[in-house]
Queue: 2 jobs
Job 1
Amino acid sequence: MRPTEYPDFGLTEEQRHEATFGHYYEYPGMDGERGEIWCYTDRFSYRPGDTAAFKVSSTAPRFDIAIARDGAAETPVWSRSGIASRWQDTPDQCSVEGCGWEATFELPIPPEWPSGAYKVALKADGRDGRPVTSEHLFILCPARSQRGRILQVAATGTWTAYNTWGGSNHYQGITGPGRNEYARQVSTQRPWCRGFVTLPADAPRVPIEIALPPMTKPRYPHMEWAYATGHSKKYASAGWASYDSHFFKWAERTGYGIDLISNHELHFSPEILDGYDLVVCVGHDEYWSWEMRDAVDAYLEKGGRAARFAGNFLWQTRLEDEGRRQVCYKYNARKEDPIYRSADTSRTTNAWDAPEVGRPATSTFGLNALKGVYAGWGGCLPRGVRGFPIYRPEHWAFRNTGLYYGDVLGQESHIFGYEVDGLDHVIRNGLPEPTGTDNPPDGVQILGVGLATQVEESADVPTGWLNDEDGRFAAETLYGSPSDENLEKVKRGNGMIVNFAKGKGEVFHAGSCEWVAGLLRGDAMVERVTQNVMDRFLGKSAS
């Protein structure tokens, strides 16, 4: 039985309000007299033989460092003690401009290190005698592609968008004349916020795990936990620890060969996809550039296969300064993005489905976020379906599951939420079919459908944090006005599982951020479906 009360993290009502509605973040000097240490690397990712530059700012004169590969098992690979360090000044707008720290030391990446995520743990003496610590993470790309292996693309564009370190990201910030605006440009040259690299096992995920009694006011336990424990407010929205790691670790434990790259490789080195039978995206994967989509589209057209166990494919970004700066004007794109007033508006950093962009999200992955988005948290379907209702159990993806028509896949492990992707559709003869209004791929099969919404809406309970702002943005984006009439057209959404051919290739898309929760929680049926997809696309099964 699920509990019927929200978890208690020892916060007062005022603190719970601040945890949800306030803007709290990490910044240099926040720990005052105790002292602190921070670190970032000059790049998100490297290849064997590259040299990684570690940029450290510390109140202590020396620090220790340990690096471990985070796979099926955490494997220590390198450590040093007593590295000289110093405090490095940081610009007020470091979230936008970058920290600008000098390299503290450099590490040539040994050629024998396998591809994956490498966690960096730093420790130094605090001024009060207790140690101060911090974490970083970098990605090691494969030296070469190999048939029969999975290539996972870490959602580093989304990590960058949500990173709160320094005060600003694409959601909240200390930018603008009033120091109260989100940042339209964010830098990669800063540390990751707390919770992006590692998390305790009991850290709440975004979807609500309690059985809500009648007349329950929306609350957001993950934000309350973050406030109570000193983690980033956005730890549960992005990062290696909450999402990408769970698929990578599961794949290695299950016996799959798997390599890892960042979104940036898609943008700057699209050839890295060549030679792989399967490319996988997982978790919360919201921010992509035009070039990233080009890379995947070309790969699929040539015969590649993509499995997307991820949700919220929404925003176009631009990468500048060789990828060190990510640009996304988002809600203000039509007012502020200079590209919107140029001869070619296609690179406007708005939603993919905005008319000025002209590149529907469905053309790559078959689904789009504006027909989603929210499920299972706050006042958005808090008692809604926790898994995918299945409509076509005869599909090859469900082989050896025993699923029947109308069964719910992943109900126990809560794989449906926090943000999902869908399509406009109708039900004919008990089966969902796309209407065609949002340009779905030819031949797309809708395998499962759950409800979602863009607004918090109840006839009896006041709305909470989300309200209807996103719904009105979608209404204006798609129909030119955020009116009540247009809001009615967009506020009710859905999340789907779809499969379709693209060029000589094929796509399977389970459009939910939380699919990885099924792997994390050992849901045998979710694991079976995931394996069916992997095996088919890797050529390990005949059909």
Job 2
Amino acid sequence: MSTNIPPRSSQGKNSLDSDPLGPEKEQYSLEEMMKALRDKERAKEAQGEVVTRSDGTIARKVKRRRRRSGQASENNPEREKKRLLLKVVIGATLILILFLTVLFLILMQNSKGHRDKLAQQASEWSGAEVEFRGLKRMPFSVSIKDANFQWDQTNFVRNLALNNIEGHVRFLNYLGARPSGLQIGGSKGQLRLAMPSARGDNIDSLDEEDFPFGFDEYYCDSLDVFFGSDAPIGFSEVDAIFSYAGDGGYQLTLNEGIFRADGWEDFPVSKGVMRFKDGRLNLKALSLKHPTQSGVSVASDLKLSGEVLMAPGEESTLEISTDQFPMEILIGKRLARFFSGSVESSSGTVQFTVGNDYFDEIKINLKASAAKVLRLPFLVNLHSLFPNHNLDLLEFHEGISNSLITGTVRARPEGVALENFQFSEKGKVSLSGSLLIADDGRIAGRFEISINRFYLSSQERFKGSPHLIGSDTTGLVSFSFDVGGTVDRPTDTFLQVIGVDSKTFQIDDPIDGSKDKIWQNLLNPLEEKVPVDPEILKPLNVE
């Protein structure tokens, strides 16, 4: 019987038993020893292990070396197609899911239910009745056709209406219920403010996080602001920015636009900053420019500042100041018919009671560099009496002959007055007194004019005047006379007092010229104590 096992004598010495070091040496280096071990391991791997199969044959088992990562894999087109198709399917699925999610959010956030929810949140936050019309929310924008906020009579703010609101939102915030971004605002709006007529519940400090919108700023390109039911004062077409000021407070910033008040010219707005917190309005600064007919402003501002406690019956005071401001603009339209000039500086107050639509009183102390008196009858008569001395227009200039130009403007709901004014030019003429113009146009006042005695003594008609007797030949002769009538038809008693008519005229019971008495006489008109002859009020015909 034959066998596949070779005879023991024929096997010989296996090459694995051969010494890789070659001929024996007495000493080997470490490098040689490590190299010999590596070579031996490689030889084993190459030759493999000798094994006997089940049928008796002999074979060598060779270990396969693992492919390194850098080695290229075998090209398998079918496998690559399957992998690519899988990737396409997964990508398309994700895109479809994202599209459906965004579509769902768009439909949900543009639904009537979501719009009503935002309005309800805004109502709970502000305490107003809120209505949103035409709300559209997209992944990168939000728009509202109209937004309306309506408060009751216990609030300082009564109504806010905004049109064409647009804002850019952060996409990541779109996944939430609260639109957020840098700015959102409307192209046009109206804000109506009125003093509370009744006390309401105390309103907690407004928390920015509770508002349904999370924008950093809220603006309106053209905002009209009305104060009071009849809107006696307000702003028009101002650039307004509303922002959170921290600690439950909010800030309203006004730029450009026009400030309007009954009885005054329109003031261009330079800058305004108002802060609302804990039921208080803090007017940090409101600067109004000098209005000009050309529309070009000059470097002069009227500034208002102060704090108001928004509670019915509370009295508040705002500070007012100006530098280099036209007198006719500062004193109001009615007084400007009779006085003009340039105010060097002024300071005063605006007083009002919360609950009233209009201010209680405005008081401004003036120091002017120039002043002019206009349109009163006594000016025409001065010119007729002294045609060579240019007294038809009384003009005073600071720095010329030590002129003094001061006075106090007082405005109330009943009227406006220039009180205790003093216009003087040393050695020539001076004018002082008070003039009040009622809201219905009636006039009351008491003037004192001082004229150089030389003007009167040089004419024969005055030589017998009792006003010249005992006068200093180098001084001034003074006359006090009353002013009355209306803005359109002013009258005065200058000619009667100066005594140029055929009879010497004297007032037996003169009107009290104090400012308080003038207000009382005008607001509670009595029968005229000094009848005025229309013929006497006509300009003199001096030959």
